[in-house]
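quick one, 132 residues, struct below
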Amino acid sequence: MLIFCFGRCLGSIQYLKSKFGKNYLLQIKVKGVEQGDLVNTQILKMFPQAARQERISTLLAYKIPMENALPLSKAFSMLEKAKQLFNLEEYSFSLNTLEQVFLELCIEQERDYFDLAPNTTFDWKKLQEGDP
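---
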């Protein structure tokens, strides 16, 4: 099985997982939205190289590079302590799935295809007196 994007072969499943699947995915479900910032601070203390991928209501998702991760036993021990301390609903700590690798590739390809560079320039226009 191969994966194609924009008519180009990106590689076999094994190749893509070995090249792009070098991260753990940490998903945390908090009980209240107000806990998000506190939990985020704690996660960055535990995993300094973590990059928050999403924050949707009460769900936080982080990408953690394997080379910077703690041994799994220590990571789970610290996550369990955080679960008790912050009264978290649940958490999941896993390897990137093929689906996540595929989605990241598609987003990257789409960004390249559409050349989506952030536009930080603004056109300022002075409002005339009497304009609504």
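Residues 22-96 form a domain with the Alpha-Beta Plaits fold (CATH 3.30.70.1150).
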